[in-house]
Structures are given as C-alpha cells and as structure tokens.
Amino acid sequence: MKWGILATGTIAKKFASTVEQMGAEGEQLVAVGSRHLESAQAFAQQYGIPRCYDSYEALAADPEVEAIYIATPNTLHYENCKLCLEQGKHVLCEKPFTITPEQAQQLYRLAEEKHLFLMEAFWIWLLPLYDHLREILTAGTIGELKQITCQYGFVASGARKDRKFDSGLGGGALLDIGIYNLGFLRILTGQDPEKVETKEVHINEYGTDDYSRLVLTYPGGCMAESVQTIGQELERNARILGTKGSIFLPDFQHAETMTLEVEGKEPEIIRCPVDINGFEYEIREASRCVKLGRTDSDRYTPQDSLALTRLMYDTRMSWGMKFAGEV
C-alpha cells in the first residue's frame, strides 16, 4: 500500500523506519506533509520519500497516496482524520484517537459512508504476545481474573515536556501513556469497567495531569489498578492474578515476554518476539483490511477504540480537567 505521513515528529519517524524495513511486504512511503516545508524535505530525504508538501491539505490531495498515517498532537487528530477521509484516503491515526467520544463516532461514521478504512494506531493491541495471552485467559489456565496491576511512567523534559503537558495539544499522562494501561486492561477483560475510582491525581500548572492512580472494577469482581505518570520513572510492568495462577509481564508495552505461574506447575517463561519494533502489526492490519474492502478492523474494533476514548474522557471530566478550547 502507498502511504503518506502527516507530520514529521518522533513517532512519525518510527513509523517511517518501520515501513522502510517492511519493503518486501509491498508497503511504500510515497509522500510526507508538514506545516513547514523544511521539515518535510528533511524527513523525505532521511527516508527516501519522493514527494514532500508544506501543508496537510496538499498531502491529502496527492492522488498517488492510498493511506495516510496521522502523527500530529492529540487535539489535531479529529480535523486531520476528517481532512484525509474527505479526500478519499484510508487512515491510520495515532493514539489517542480523538479527544471526545463524539469526535470518534463522527469519524467512524464518515469512514463507513465513504467506504474507507479507519483505525486508531494502538499498536500494542496487535502484538503476538497478546494474542497468546488472550488464548491463555480464554482457556481458563489461570482461572477467573481477580486482580490486575499495571504502571507506566517516565520523566518528560525539554520540548517533549512542553508538548506532553500542553493543554492546547491534549497533553497529560492519561491520554499520553494511561491509554496503554487502560487498553491493556481491556485486552485482558474484554469489557468496560463497572466503576472507576480516582485514588490520586495531580494536575500541574499547565492544567494537565502528570500523575494519577485509578482503581477499576470489572463485571465479575475483577479489580485493577492503573498508575500513569510523566513526572517519574516507573517500570512498565504488569501482574495478573487469577484463581488458579498468575502472569507477570516485565514490560507490558513492548510486550515480548511473560512468566506464567499455575498452581502445581513450574513457572513458564513465554517469549513472543516482534519482527521489527511492534509497529509492523498495525501497518499489516491496515493493509489487510484495505485489501478486504473493510472500513474498520475486526481485531482492534471501533467499539474498542470508542470505549477507551469514552473511559479517558469520563475520567478527566471527573477531575474537572478540560483542554484549552473545550466547553
């Protein structure tokens, strides 16, 4: 599939590098767009992209581009997705998909009306280890889920700090990295929580969250704790406790290894390495769905995406945390 990349930041570079390494699979980078021509030119030169544009509109109008990967700040996702869909492009949009559930619903409806593919680029959902983990849980290997804990934290600094804390860009720990925690919990439970309690939250001088600790209760009684922060280094580990055993993931984001412990058996280390860096699976899924004529993925569905969008929206509304420009 012929890809265009909208924006030229760090995550866009990772995407471009991944597509480069997937060349034998038929994925091509044919254009890149930025608000600044110099940025687009430098990006195009670095990744061997034949065309570059100084506007997102020009990129979306390129007739050779079949699909566009959107890598702009959070608050721009809605308008960027809408632009690309209206120009007849398939879209893979970086997480978090949109700021509000209403925006997400509108975009999925638009994609369906125009018979175009649209998916949130929530790459960890499609990792091989999680396919195996789902099989273990479905088989009842560790019994019924009782307790889950997960944490993710790093220290944002410099320009990265400004962007990740900026209310006008949809900053804060919840949308930036909390989505990994909450998505991980949905991978395990397959359900919306019945109850979400904020045990701790810190809103900084930028008006966004740099730390929160949530406790979620799921149907059947499973309890989960999610800690997310962009002000402290935390190991990205997770532990899953069931009635018959447990699973430990030393890194649930870049998930390639987990330890399975079942009552009466020796612990088992399970490894499912990625092919490149993990991004390849969302790219393959987008291409697969486009070839099948699908407007969405049946693996990471609009329902899953909407559920996470709504969960994060409701949580920050309970904090009274509105982004700049939100009513």
TrEMBL record:
<feature type="domain" description="GFO/IDH/MocA-like oxidoreductase">
    <location>
        <begin position="131"/>
        <end position="247"/>
    </location>
</feature>
<dbReference type="GO" id="GO:0016491">
    <property type="term" value="F:oxidoreductase activity"/>
</dbReference>
<dbReference type="Pfam" id="PF22725">
    <property type="entry name" value="GFO_IDH_MocA_C3"/>
</dbReference>
<comment type="similarity">
    <text>Belongs to the Gfo/Idh/MocA family.</text>
</comment>
<dbReference type="InterPro" id="IPR050984">
    <property type="entry name" value="Gfo/Idh/MocA_domain"/>
</dbReference>
<dbReference type="InterPro" id="IPR055170">
    <property type="entry name" value="GFO_IDH_MocA-like_dom"/>
</dbReference>
<feature type="domain" description="Gfo/Idh/MocA-like oxidoreductase N-terminal">
    <location>
        <begin position="2"/>
        <end position="121"/>
    </location>
</feature>
<protein>
    <submittedName>
        <fullName>Gfo/Idh/MocA family oxidoreductase</fullName>
    </submittedName>
</protein>
<dbReference type="InterPro" id="IPR000683">
    <property type="entry name" value="Gfo/Idh/MocA-like_OxRdtase_N"/>
</dbReference>
<dbReference type="Pfam" id="PF01408">
    <property type="entry name" value="GFO_IDH_MocA"/>
</dbReference>
<dbReference type="InterPro" id="IPR036291">
    <property type="entry name" value="NAD(P)-bd_dom_sf"/>
</dbReference>
<keyword id="KW-0560">Oxidoreductase</keyword>
<dbReference type="GO" id="GO:0000166">
    <property type="term" value="F:nucleotide binding"/>
</dbReference>
